[in-house]
Amino acid sequence: MPSHLVKVRKKMNIFAQRRVRNVLSGNYGSVFKGRSLDFDDLREYNYGDDIKDIDWKATARSRSIMIRRYVAVRKHNILLVCDSGRTMATLAPSGEDKHEIATFCAGVISYIALHHSDFVGMIYGNKAEHKRFGLKDEAAYIENFLDKFSKSMTTTGAESDLNALLSYVSKTYRERSFMIILSDADGVGRIDTELIRKLHARHEIMFIVIEDSPLTNNVLFDSNVIDLDGEIRLSKYFRKNKKIAAAENEFREAQRIGIRKSLRRMGIVCSFIDSVDHAIPRIVAMLEEQKHVRH
Question: Please, what is the end-to-end C-alpha distance for the chain in angstroms?
């Protein structure tokens, strides 16, 4: 059975679009842009300095225009924060298991980070437990935690608790990082915005949202579909009802818009993923968008 990173590499080759090549090109220059720099000290402004580096508070105190100076950091810390609650083991719009898409998305981020010699770690969890894997730049190590994350998501597992997971991250992980939070729309929709603001003050944050299969999914018309919580078999009559389909589509779109607006107000980008086939181009688009976000 191919490894998770091998699957990603094969998909990268299949979807070798120009934008993907750009993300993976260059000896260095990580796709996780930020400033790639750590603050060093302040000095007075000189002609030709980038005005974006002006420290306005220091300027007001000293009455001279002061510039922030930075020390280059060659490697980034990429932390995957992943929801492993039981809803992550249900179906996506493509008919694929959400845990398969979630693991693939985590693999895409890891693959791109490894290509740029960045460090990658993962913290995943649900209401019952949290698992932490420190930062390393070793493919075998990353392969190991991707496999464990994939196997942790089952329909008989504990419920999701993204707020508890993020609280755990905020208490145990202090080192500045690029944090990619991976969950589904219900998990992200219930998130504590103040908790995200606190995390965002220290870390660069992006969200990957794995979409749920709609009740009226055409892909599943000939399949038996059972509700996760009540174990109720969903009737094909309701699943083929056009009014239900329209109402559900309206609800899902409003949910996406609400999540995007809420995150955007905090200067955070997100990507909604509905299948393995759409994962790479949408993640690449998210990473490109993140470069231009003003914090």
Answer: 42
Are residues 118 and 30 in contact, defined by beta-carbon separation less than 8 angstroms?
yes
Strand order in the sheet with 178-184: 130-136, 119-125, 77-83, 178-184, 204-210, 269-273
Residue 237 CB partners (closer than 8 Å, separation 6+): none
> Domain total for the chain?
2
- Relative to beta strand 66-72, strand 37-44 is antiparallel
Mean of the per-residue pLDDT values for the chain? Answer: 84
Range of the domain at 106: 4-26+75-291
Confidence band for 26, pLDDT divided at 50, 70 and 90: very low
Q: Based on the domain organization, do 68 and 132 belong to the same domain?
A: no
Give dist(CA 183, CA 173) in Å, integer. Answer: 19
The per-residue b/e assignment along 70-88, b for 16 or more CB within 10 angstroms, e otherwise, is eeeeeebbbbbbbbbbbbb
Do 149 and 225 reside in the same domain of the chain? yes
How does residue 221 score in pLDDT terms, banded at 50, 70 and 90? low
The residue type found at 288 is: E
Q: Is residue 196 part of a domain?
A: yes
Whether residues 201 and 278 share a domain: the answer is: yes
131 & 258 share domain: yes
Check residue 53 and give its pLDDT. Answer: 83
Confidence at 74, pLDDT banded by 50, 70, 90 = low
Q: What is the mean pLDDT of residues 91-95?
A: 89
Asked if residue 32 belongs to a domain, the reply is no
Look-up: residue for tokens 């510039």? 67
Return the percentage of the chain with pLDDT > 70, whole number: 80
Q: Is residue 31 part of a domain?
A: no
Most confident of 74-78, 111-115, 128-132: 128-132
Which pairing describes strands 130-136 and 119-125: parallel, antiparallel, or unpaired? Answer: antiparallel
